[in-house]
Write a structure and sequence with these properties.
With about 325 residues, the chain is of the alpha+beta class. The protein has 2 domains: about 1-160 and about 225-315, 4-Layer Sandwich (Deoxyribonuclease I, Chain A); about 160-220, no CATH class. It has helices spanning about 15-25, 40-50, 125-135, 160-175, 180-185, 190-195, 200-205, 210-225, 230-235, 240-245, 270-275; strands spanning about 1-10, 30-35, 55, 70, 75-80, 90-100, 105-110, 145-150, 240, 265-270, 275-280, 300-305.
Length: about 325
């Protein structure tokens, strides 16, 4: 059995490395894909604490810094960084590993662009990134997976936009309205999500969380507006959304961690690897040591040995109760 964890640790982890370590230890994974790994000193410390060798997508010549990393208990056979300036915002990290039964497994770690205030949630740019990532993946014919933060919803997924709105408004208040400084530290802001031409609506948006009726209307409108094209490209290319395959009816929200609004973190498996998929879930609630480790919840997937693996979904993830109103 090989256990995979995908985790966005928020702006390099900062002083939260011990909390992040606790979360990862709770899962006891063989492979950890880290997104927003912008502080390599922190990644080095985390790898040391977990006794897991690591590699990053930093360039050898220093032309770009690390933004993704992979930690592994499995032997690392090789690593490749795929940089496509002007096409992919952040280089994709490719790592080939040797599993316990001797088979090679290749993991790709990606972080797609956010910039939601740019034209229909900026999905056009994310779709461009996905097309290029698919070209990169096309050269790998063995078992492989793609994981990370895609900043996008999957077709058919729910969106609790009122939770996100509450989270943004409360966060903006904490930063005393300095939304640009807030975003420089990796935290989304209301102005960073609302297009400039629509920011005159912000005072009205600030009233939404206080009304049950407005929350319901806002959730419905935002769900219709939210584009899903980039994830649809991966699905049409044959990549299996591991969480949705195991949990066909669960919401599986991953962000924000303390006011879950949508599922934007994924583990995708190619058809060959998907035959070995035995479990996948978003880790939250009692399974997370502390929710203040990051603004994302991690996603975990398990793969057995061979196609005879028994499919066993997590029963507690099959149906979720509707989330209550955000704070």
């Amino acid at each position: 059995m090989t256990r995979i964890l995908s985790y966005n640790i928020l702006f390099g982890g900062g002083e939260r490395i011990r909390r992040i370590e606790q979360v990862i230890r709770t899962v006891d994974p063989d492979i950890v894909g880290i997104v927003e790994a912008i502080d390599e000193e922190n990644i080095r410390e985390l790898a040391w604490r977990l006794n897991m060798p690591y590699c990053t997508n930093a360039s050898p010549d220093g032309s770009w810094q690390t933004s993704s990393a992979l930690l592994s208990r499995l032997p690392i056979v090789r690593s490749v960084v795929h940089a496509r300036p002007g096409v992919i915002t952040r280089p994709v990290l490719e790592v080939t590993l040797e599993e316990a039964h001797g088979e090679k497994l290749t993991a790709f770690v990606a972080h797609l662009v956010a910039s939601f205030s740019h034209g229909r949630g900026n999905d056009r740019v994310r779709s461009r990134e996905v097309r290029e990532i698919l070209r990169i993946l096309r050269g790998n014919h063995g078992p492989h997976l793609l994981m990370g933060d895609f900043n996008a919803l999957a077709p058919g997924d729910k969106l609790k936009a009122s939770n996100l709105l509450s989270y943004l408004i409360e966060g903006d208040d904490d930063w005393q309205g300095d939304w640009q400084a807030k975003e420089r530290m990796g935290h989304p802001s209301l102005n960073g999500v609302v297009p400039p031409k629509l920011r005159f609506l912000n005072p009205l948006l600030c009233r939404v969380p206080r009304s049950r009726v407005l929350r319901a209307l806002f959730d419905e409108a935002a769900s219709l507006y939210a584009p899903r094209g980039s994830i649809g490209l991966l699905q049409r290319a044959g990549y299996v959304d591991c969480f949705r395959y195991v949990n066909p009816r669960a919401w599986g929200f991953t962000c924000p961690a303390d006011a879950p609004a949508g599922r934007i973190d994924y583990i995708f498996a190619n058809p060959l690897l998907a035959t070995r998929l035995s479990a996948c879930k978003v880790l939250g609630g009692e399974e997370i040591v502390r929710l203040d480790a990051s603004d994302h919840l991690p996603v975990m997937a398990e793969f057995g040995v061979g196609i005879e693996t028994t499919f066993r979904p997590y029963k507690d993830e099959l149906v979720e109760e509707p989330l209550g109103e955000a704070r």
